[in-house]
Structures are given as structure tokens and as C-alpha cells.
Amino acid sequence: MDIEKIAQAIETDAGMPLADIRQALTEMQSETGRITTAEQILVRSARTKCGLSQQAFAARIKTPVATLRDWEQGRFVPPGGVLCLLKIIYNHPDLLGELDAA
């Protein structure tokens, strides 16, 4: 990140010099924030909408609980087919019982 370039652009937009902008940008750059993805939110939302623990939900979708945790914590992204299944479960949580019959 080019701090000087960004600081100049912000000052131009503000129409005045901003004394602490460079320090603030430097501090911001050093901070490592947590990023939550849409896929993480979908996995967690589908599971919580069904009212199940990670263990119970993982068993229901026939996935190792460690894999489900990895998806929820953003270490890995679920494959496309799993994302489609999760969207269906989120929109129709009552259908989750059908997975037991399969």
C-alpha cells in the first residue's frame, strides 16, 4: 500500500492537509483484521438455522466435523456442490431431515 499516495488523495478530497493521516494509514496497514467470507456466513447460518451443533450438522451432511469447522472458520472454502446444498438447507431447513433417509 502506497501510504503517501493514499494520504495525498484523502487530503485532496478533504481539501486540506490532515496532520495525522499518514500515521493512521501506517497503523491501519500494520493491523491484521479478520475477514469473513460469504461462504463462511452461509455455512454457519445454515447450521444455526437448523439449530444443530457442528457435530450434529456435520453428521447430517456426512462431512467430518473438522472439515465443517475449517469451512466455518474460513480456512477452506466448501466445494460448489456443498455450497448449493447449504443454500437449499438455509432456505428450507425442514428438508435437512430428508438427508437421513438418503
Defining traits:
single chain; mainly alpha; 2 domains; 0% strand; DNA binding; Cro/C1-type_HTH
What does this protein structure show overall?
There is one protein chain. By secondary structure, this protein is mainly α. It has 2 domains: 1-33, no CATH class; 38-101, 434 Repressor (Amino-terminal Domain), CATH 1.10.260. Helices cover 65% and strands 0% of the residues. It contains 7 helices and no strands. Helix 1 (3-14) crosses helix 2, helix 3 (38-50) crosses helix 6 and helix 4 crosses helix 5.
The total tally of domains equals 2
CATH class of the largest domain: Mainly Alpha
Number of strands: 0
Strand content: under 5%
Largest sheet: none
CATH topology label of the largest domain: 434 Repressor (Amino-terminal Domain)
Task: List SSEs in N-to-C order.
Answer: HHHHHHH
Gyration radius (Cα, Å) is 21 Å
Mean pLDDT: 88
Level-2 CATH architecture of the largest domain: Orthogonal Bundle
